[in-house]
């Protein structure tokens, strides 16, 4: 087959070439075929077709535009599939090929499939070769990528953000700050917020992952400040502390001639105590701990300048409280900055499987500082409500994590989602409902481990345990699922006599719509399985899980998280496995009968 397709894609007949490239795009997913085709120098043939052959195709574009788009699309699809096997190094491609791929991305109007494949190729080039990163960076600019985010195709938007992330990740350290400045100038966050996050379409997992990667890479620009200790002898750094004092107490720095040295020292010490620093004599020492280092002082100054009223109120409120109940602003700010660095993974490389992005990140170019400003006010409020003392600081910190929903709920929802998908992978035995037969008939359905296919088939009897995938004769690709409907909207509930048979079935019925008007109909064995399956199917489609079990699990896990965080567990090692259940007592004489 590899030999035949190798010959057919070089045919002078456009129709034969098109059919051959279509077959090649499909066959290239198979690694055995891919190896054979690559051994025939097939990759070089495809790149030559892209470099030189497209000029010939473009002459035909005016008279057969759809054919041109399909030819190029199938060529690039085959190339992407072959390269994904990791057999050929990315370093082998010419500048001419890179320029051609980049030109498809930079064109104002380009076939959607061609644009998608071109973006995927550029991303892989940048991620897999430092040399290719430099060449790609010379061919495309952020300004040329931005328009692709302003369309409505989420796949194109996802690949565009992926290319931006790849360029960001591979850029030398000295260029990352410059690139971040360009992204801010181009209002990238605002464009993503308007066209992606606030669009009517649900955000799928791949898009959520790319948004998370962009968030992590941006926050990682703060690592240098986070790991920089304050130099107590640096006058410019000490001036920041003087500025915090000036804004809080509306005082100017005393001149050298005003009052005695001892009097001025006493005034500074008093004010630094009110500001909540640990070291009242020399607060600069407080910022020698890394992390959070100078990043904490940056946050404090941002809060004091951009939220001045709230800053003054917090400082003055705590100045008037009893010493044991004051919420020390300085210490709180340092600990809070450290906590935010941990939560937002500052300094860590992005995880390949994480989708945990925060929408607020895209609402402000100084999002980390704004996170801090919100949380420091929330911490102060929580401190007052708990009537906390300095010994309760860790409990207040733990409570703050729970009271910030977008930091706790998202992680718990991801945990619930994984549980639902794991249950679908285990599978469930469903009962067939028929008014003509009294004898029960069964069928089994389970999700493949890679979450891409539903395997299902009939059974003679109810199984004991899981049913293997290979014994289930029918398959439904998840990509083909259009929608999930429930209750009276299900086709098998609309059939004559279905509702009369058992109205309770309505609460357990759901159907999967695929293709145009085909359905896979389910009757769950109980309410729990109904919720598990409808939640899991909605999660696969990128939709919200809305069952009552999800709400109950969320409440339970949030409550448990709160109680665990409030426990005094400092310096106590938590075991990885639960302790063994103790043996039963020899007698129950200690039991008291209340009657």
Features:
7% strand; alpha+beta
Strand content: 5-15%
Which outline best applies?
flat
Query: How many helical stretches?
Result: 26
Number of strands: 7
- pLDDT under 50 segments (min length 5)? none
Describe the structure.
This protein starts with a helix and ends in a 29-residue tail after the last helix. The chain is built from 26 helices and 7 strands. The radius of gyration is 31 Å and the shape is flat. By secondary structure, it is of the alpha+beta class. Strand 6 and strand 7 form a beta hairpin. Helix 6 packs across helix 8 (130-139) and helix 7 packs parallel to helix 10 (154-170). The strands form 2 sheets. Strands 1-2-3-4 form a 4-stranded antiparallel sheet. The chain has a 3-stranded antiparallel sheet with strand order 5-6-7. It has helices at 2-8, 14-27, 31-39, 42-61, 65-83, 95-106, 112-128, 130-139, 142-145, 154-170, 173-185, 188-197, 205-219, 223-226, 235-249, 261-274, 294-306, 308-319, 329-343, 367-386, 393-403, 405-426, 491-494, 498-501, 527-540, 548-566, and strands at residues 428-432, 441-447, 453-459, 474-477, 481-486, 509-514, 518-523. One of its GO terms (molecular function) is SH3 domain binding. This is Engulfment and cell motility 1 (ced-12 homolog, C. elegans). One of its GO terms (biological process) is cell motility.
């Amino acid at each position: 087959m590899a030999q035949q397709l190798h010959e057919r894609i070089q045919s002078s007949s456009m129709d034969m070439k098109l059919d051959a490239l279509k077959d090649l795009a499909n066959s290239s997913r198979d690694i055995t075929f891919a190896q054979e085709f690559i051994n025939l120098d097939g990759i070089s043939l495809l790149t030559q077709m892209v470099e030189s052959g497209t000029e010939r195709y473009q002459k035909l574009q005016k008279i057969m535009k759809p054919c041109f788009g399909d030819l190029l699309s199938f060529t690039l699809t085959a190339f992407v599939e072959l390269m994904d096997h990791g057999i050929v190094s990315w370093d082998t491609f010419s500048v001419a090929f890179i320029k051609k791929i980049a030109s498809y991305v930079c064109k104002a109007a380009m076939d959607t499939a061609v644009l998608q494949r071109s973006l995927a190729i550029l991303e892989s080039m940048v991620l897999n070769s430092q040399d290719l990163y430099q060449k790609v960076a010379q061919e495309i600019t952020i300004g040329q990528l931005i328009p692709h985010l302003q369309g409505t195709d989420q796949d194109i938007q996802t690949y565009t953000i992926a290319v931006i992330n790849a360029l960001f990740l591979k850029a030398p350290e000295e260029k990352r700050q410059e690139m971040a400045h360009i992204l801010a100038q181009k209002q990238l966050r605002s464009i993503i917020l308007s066209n992606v996050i606030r669009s009517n379409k649900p955000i799928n997992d791949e898009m959520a992952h790319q948004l998370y990667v962009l968030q992590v890479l941006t926050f990682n620009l703060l690592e240098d400040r986070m790991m920089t200790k304050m130099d107590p002898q640096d006058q410019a750094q000490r001036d920041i502390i003087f500025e915090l004092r000036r804004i809080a107490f509306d005082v100017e720095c005393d001149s050298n001639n005003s009052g005695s040295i001892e009097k001025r020292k006493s005034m500074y010490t008093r004010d630094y105590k009110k500001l909540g620093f640990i070291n009242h004599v020399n607060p600069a020492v407080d910022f020698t701990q890394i992390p959070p280092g100078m990043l904490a002082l940056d946050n404090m100054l941002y809060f004091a300048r951009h939220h001045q009223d709230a800053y003054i109120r917090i400082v003055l409120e705590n100045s008037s409280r009893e010493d044991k109940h004051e919420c020390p602003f300085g210490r709180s700010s340092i600990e809070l900055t450290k906590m935010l660095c941990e939560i937002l993974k500052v300094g860590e490389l992005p995880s390949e499987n994480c989708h945990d992005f925060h929408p607020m990140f895209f609402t402000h170019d100084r999002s980390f500082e704004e996170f801090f400003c919100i949380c420091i006010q929330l911490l102060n409020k929580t401190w007052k409500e708990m009537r906390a003392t300095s010994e309760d600081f860790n409990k207040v910190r733990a409570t703050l994590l729970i009271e910030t929903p977008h930091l706790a709920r998202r992680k718990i929802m991801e945990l619930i989602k994984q549980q639902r998908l794991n249950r679908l992978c285990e599978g469930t035995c469903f009962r067939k409902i028929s008014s003509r037969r009294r004898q029960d008939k069964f069928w089994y359905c389970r999700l493949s481990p890679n979450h891409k296919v539903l395997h299902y088939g009939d059974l003679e009897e109810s199984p004991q345990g899981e049913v293997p995938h290979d014994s289930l004769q029918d398959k439904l690709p998840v990509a083909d699922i259009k929608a999930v409907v429930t209750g009276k909207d299900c086709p098998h509930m609309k059939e004559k006599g279905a509702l009369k048979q058992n109205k309770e079935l309505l609460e357990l019925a759901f159907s999967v719509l695929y293709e145009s008007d085909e359905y896979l109909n389910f009757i769950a064995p109980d309410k729990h399985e109904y919720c598990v399956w409808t939640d899991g199917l909605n999660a696969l489609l990128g939709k919200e899980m809305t069952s009552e079990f999800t709400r109950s699990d969320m409440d339970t896990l949030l409550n448990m998280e709160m109680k665990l965080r409030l426990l005094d567990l400092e310096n106590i090692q938590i075991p990885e496995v639960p302790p063994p259940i103790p043996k039963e007592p020899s007698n129950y004489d200690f039991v008291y009968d209340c009657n």
